[in-house]
C-alpha cells in the first residue's frame, strides 16, 4: 500500500504536469523552445552530478526507475526523438515504430554504466538538434510523422514533447532530491 494519495502519486509521476502541445506557435515561441532545448542537458547535469552512486541507484518514486536509469533513458529517447524529427523533415509522414522502454531500462547499459556517458551524449545530441532547429523554415515545423505510440505529430509538437519529456524526468529527479534532503 502506498503512503501517498492518488493526487500525490500523480504529482510524483508527472511533476511538471502531463504533456499538452501548444498549436500555432509564432516565431518567438519557437525560438524560445529552441533556447530551452539548448539548456536541457545542463539542467539535467546540474541535478545529477552531485549525487553519490547510492543516490543514483535510488528510484525517484516507489516502483520506478532509478535516477541512473532515468538519465540513460533520456539519452536513448533523445536519440530516438532526434531521428524521428529528421525522418519527419526528409520523408512524407514516415511511420515510426515504438520500442520497449521498460525492457531497455533493464539492460546493463542502464543499470551499470556511469551517468556521465549519457550526460555527454545528451549534451552533444542537443547541440546538433539546436543547430538543425535554427536552420529550419517555419513551414518545416508543420511537417509530421506517425508514431506507433503517439499518433501523428507535427515537428512543432515533437519538439515541445521532447522538451516536456526532458523537463518531466529532470523534475522527477529534483523532486526526489528535495524530498530526500540531499
How are the strands of the largest sheet arranged?
1-2-3
**Which stretches of 5+ consecutive residues score pLDDT under 50?**
none
- The proportion of residues in beta strands is 5-15%
The helix/strand order is HHHHEHHHEEH
Helix content: 55-70%
Major β-sheet, in short? 3 strands, mixed
Secondary structure class reads mainly alpha
Mean pLDDT, rounded to whole units?
Answer: 94
What gross morphology would you assign? globular
Question: What's the quick description here?
Answer:
With 182 residues, the protein is mainly α. It contains eight helices and three strands; from the N terminus they run H-H-H-H-E-H-H-H-E-E-H. 62% of the residues lie in helices and 5% in strands.
Structural overview:
The chain has 182 residues and is mainly alpha-helical. Helix content is 62%, strand content 5%. The chain is built from eight helices and three strands; from the N terminus they run ααααβαααββα. The chain has helices at 6-13, 27-48, 53-56, 67-90, 101-104, 108-111, 115-135, 155-180, and strands at residues 95-96, 144-147, 151-154. A three-stranded mixed sheet has the order 1-2-3. A hairpin with a 3-residue loop joins strand 2 (144-147) and strand 3. Helix 2 (27-48) packs parallel to helix 8, helix 4 (67-90) packs parallel to helix 7 (115-135) and helix 4 (67-90) packs antiparallel against helix 8 (155-180). The longest helix has 26 residues, at 155-180.
Essential attributes:
single chain; 182 residues; mainly alpha; 3-stranded mixed beta sheet; 8 helices
